[in-house]
User: Which sequence fits this backbone?
């Protein structure tokens, strides 16, 4: 097993890379090749390969599948949700992704700190207002907020995808916080 | 496509059952056989089969896979998270599951309305206190709350699973709320 | 004295029915005849007959006296206030009353879980928005919220009655929560 | 009818004193004699004599009946509840009562502004902590808070009375706020 | 050193008046002459003369310098900020200032208790709404709230001054609360 | 006047550097020399030289004067307060200062995102818990929280200084948010 202490504060049976089944090892090797690291969230989930399988498939489809939302927009949502929930792991990891995908380091900082201070067009502002509202006060979200998204140009399919991305980080934020998950060192210096 | 209006308020390209790929149709037929219905959450996700695949695999592993948490306990957590977030769909569906699995209709009502009024042993009370705290105020969860779970008898693997179940309903609550998802009629009368 | 444990968690000098003064015993017998039970809230208050007298008179006038609000509407308000305050006793008792008076079991569930998901006309939606706001954030209620009620068709007398019903359950919710009052078993199965 | 504008902002059919039934007129005359005024809350309720009857009986028993709580303590609770809810009418009226009954003008100011700054013995501090908690966050009050009251010397009957007084002002605060009730001028200068 | 107990609950090296440097003693003597007292906030800060110097200069300029805001308006803002934060010291001291400067004792009471109940023109209502919002929820203040002030007649310089006064009391409230600062007796009876 | 747009969103009469009085120009030239820039907060305050004078003196004494708190600790407090209030300007400027003074870039990120995830000794954890509490919920701070600081090793003078630093950023956060103050570009890359 790897040294958990670099990954999570919980004592979990995380296997060493060499002990992983072929398909998972291959997945992790692709991460290493493309990203220069295996994101700690995947390492943590590898303590239960079926959880890893479901989590990865959902993550990959929501963040990289076909959608009216651009990949950058999905990362922007990830950061705003994580800022509401104050999730250190996700702010570091997805803040870096916003810097990389946007080529605008300050945009990442704005979204980490307070998305309301960023220069955004009407569509992205509506998108992030919804992310903030659905994260911090889900009980009060109604048709009115959904209509505001339509007015800003989102289709109903786009709103479904948006809600799923918001939901996904409300899940992973809580897993990361409860396990005190630590981000890989590599994120910090990306695209500063 | 099915009549969306019974499923969600968003206009989504939900296919008719006969148009689903074989494996998905088979999955839905098993639902029909075992539960007497296809849960609307699955029907809704079928508008994007890759999302459905990831969501179902994660759901099935977290709710029915091996764990130190019993199936009833996982449903209890689902209800308490959904009560914090006031998610109508999940309260109806998982409230029914608690009634069915516990054989105690009033337990379902307590958890829907205010879990603090239920008669619970120390372990389950700690579990639901954690579910409530991690749902409503994730930013303030620290080692102290995790230690309280260990003190109540949870292993670190159990705490990981618990956090994942809490996380999962914080995701699906938001998707259900944003899409105004409607529960199948069948849930209401189950195990009253 | 009756066995308090079925009524409240506080140790109170609740008299047995046979030891009650004639007028109170008669009142309780009418309850038994009409409702099939003496509601536990009345049993609890019978530990102090003057409190019972004031409470009952106010309750009977606010919930059954002449008013622009229908009896069902008053029960709807009771449930929405109790849902904000998460009062188990009142949600069980008045959730049942909504099911009985409306003949619509799902309406009771919507109001218990999140009234914003119920199908309501504009007047009832305004009424319940006001109930929610005045319950959860009284300090910020101003002329603006009162005017919204007038715009939805309420007269000033109706607004006074509405505020009194909202106020009444903000009182009884807190008495029931502090004393851990338990609802009579009969409510649970009514009008499911 | 009296000039409503001095009493509430709602347009209510408040009768002139001479048109009141004998028993109510007598009650109001006693107020005039003892207090130098008819409190506006009673004038407002006189628009519906049955509501006035229930409200007055409950008020008189809770605030002046036999109890382990002193009359000053009940007024202290009224002020702390009203401070949480920011009810202008009740803060003026019951702030004056605290000044009068305690002979300590600054105590009234402390309780209006922030009871945590007042010099209180352990019992009264526990009493007001409970009033604050049950007012602002009823859903989280459990046996633990009730036990803290027992530990501070309250009997279960005292806790019942305390909860009723807290509940009563959570009712009347909301009625006063919604109707924009104005306090009689006389309160302001009492016992400064 | 003076008897701290009348000033703050912290044990601070507060010098006696006779031991102060000439310019500070002169400043305090002017206070005594004009106000009949040295405000305890100044006495407290005199434990560090450089802090006193910075604090006094900023206070004097913000509260008494040239501005589109009248002196009364600045005191009104001080009270509303302090009411949000429930700062006893500042509510007593600046509540008195509002009574003195306005000649309207009830205005002071309204602002201490709930500014929304005061009779205010549109400009002052906008000013106090902004003070309340920027105090209780700074993260959500955006261009929209600033524009509302412009619409109510404030220039951008006035908005800057307004924000500084709001900021200043958010500072001094926290210093007063943390040190349990006690107001001079003289304030209580001023302009009742 | 300088181009306000790089400094604040309000239209303020900010003088050009050459038009400043000698002592202020000298102060700004020292900033340029030592920091490589004039912090925009000082440029903004230069629109009113008396405000600038009071603000600068208080800032310099609180952040650089004699104190039991180290300079790094004061910057850590600045970041934690600003994170509670989500002030973009102060998070950028003081996040950089924490990176520079600590030589630990990740510490800055932890404090910006959620100080509870940082590795801190008991004293610094108590200090930041107090900063968070006094910022987000000043009304509930009492002797109990002050005693926790003493137990963690702070003297009463240290607690006074700590409260002043917390207060100061609760002031400047609000001024920066209301004026939409923009941080100098230089901060972003410092000590990454």
Assistant:
């Amino acid at each position: 097993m790897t040294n958990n202490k670099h990954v999570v504060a919980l004592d979990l049976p995380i296997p060493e890379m060499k002990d992983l089944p072929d398909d998972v090892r291959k997945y992790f090797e692709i991460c290493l090749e493309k990203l220069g690291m295996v994101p700690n969230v995947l390492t943590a989930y590898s303590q239960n390969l079926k959880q890893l399988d479901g989590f990865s498939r959902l993550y990959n489809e929501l963040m990289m599948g076909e959608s009216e939302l651009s990949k950058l927009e999905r990362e922007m949502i990830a950061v705003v949700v994580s800022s509401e929930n104050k999730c250190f792991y996700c702010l570091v990891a997805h803040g870096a992704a916003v810097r990389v995908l946007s080529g605008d380091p300050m945009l990442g900082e704005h979204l980490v700190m307070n998305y309301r201070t960023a220069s955004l067009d009407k569509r992205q502002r509506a998108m992030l207002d919804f992310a903030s509202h659905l994260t911090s006060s889900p009980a009060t979200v109604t048709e009115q907020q959904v209509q505001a998204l339509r007015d800003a140009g989102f289709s109903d399919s786009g709103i479904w995808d948006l809600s799923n991305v918001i939901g996904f980080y409300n899940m992973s934020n809580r897993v990361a916080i409860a396990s005190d998950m630590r981000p890989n060192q590599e994120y910090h210096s990306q695209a500063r």
